[in-house]
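Tokens in:
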């Protein structure tokens, strides 16, 4: 087996959770990203980067844009989507709010994206919107732009570790099912003395190690 090179890590406070930056970058900010960092100055804006990578992580391999868009319309739609998501991150006031406020922000983002004429009708489920929002917040937190968020990105791996059965994260279209997964995650995280965000990092680090 090929020996893996030493990777940069970060300790998150007293939790001793190691964040593997290379894996995070590969997973959410890799070369496959259609919005990969370019020469324009916007890539220095953490909110732009968070918006692009939240979108990519949530929508890769899934149909999203209307098929009959011209190249100009397609490019404009991508720019519009980025700005919509970015504006929601800028409006985010940190983790001081309750779960309901967090869900309300996800719902606002879902409606804003789905209302764009360039999007396929019904392509932005609540499950898609929560991942866009939560992945972006995760990036902003890890880049020390915002405080630790109260939720985590729900995806296939997180659902599996949550103990909740029969949930396809991308098809979730109601906050109740999402909160069922969040509650399941919290029960597991509480047993380890971790916050949701810290526990999610632990899960993904374990997944990275298992992939060897």
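Residues out:
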């Amino acid at each position: 087996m090929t020996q893996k090179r030493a990777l940069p890590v970060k300790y998150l406070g007293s939790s001793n959770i190691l964040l593997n930056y290379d894996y995070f970058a590969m997973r959410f900010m890799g070369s496959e990203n259609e919005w990969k960092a370019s020469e324009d100055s916007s890539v220095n804006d953490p909110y732009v980067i968070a918006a692009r990578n939240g979108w990519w992580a949530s929508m890769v391999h899934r149909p999203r844009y209307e098929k009959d868009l011209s190249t100009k319309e397609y490019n404009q739609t991508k720019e519009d989507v980025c700005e919509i998501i970015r504006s929601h991150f800028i409006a985010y006031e940190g983790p001081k709010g309750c779960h309901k406020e967090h869900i309300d922000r996800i719902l606002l983002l879902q409606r804003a994206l789905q209302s764009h004429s360039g999007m396929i009708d019904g392509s932005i489920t609540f499950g898609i919107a929560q991942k866009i929002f939560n992945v972006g917040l995760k990036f902003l937190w890890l880049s020390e732009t915002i405080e630790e968020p109260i939720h985590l990105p729900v995806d296939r791996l997180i659902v599996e570790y949550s103990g909740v059965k029969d949930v396809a994260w991308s098809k979730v279209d109601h906050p109740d099912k999402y909160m069922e997964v969040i509650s399941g995650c919290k029960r597991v995280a509480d047993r380890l003395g971790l916050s949701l965000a810290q526990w999610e990092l632990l899960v993904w680090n374990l997944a990275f190690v298992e992939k060897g």
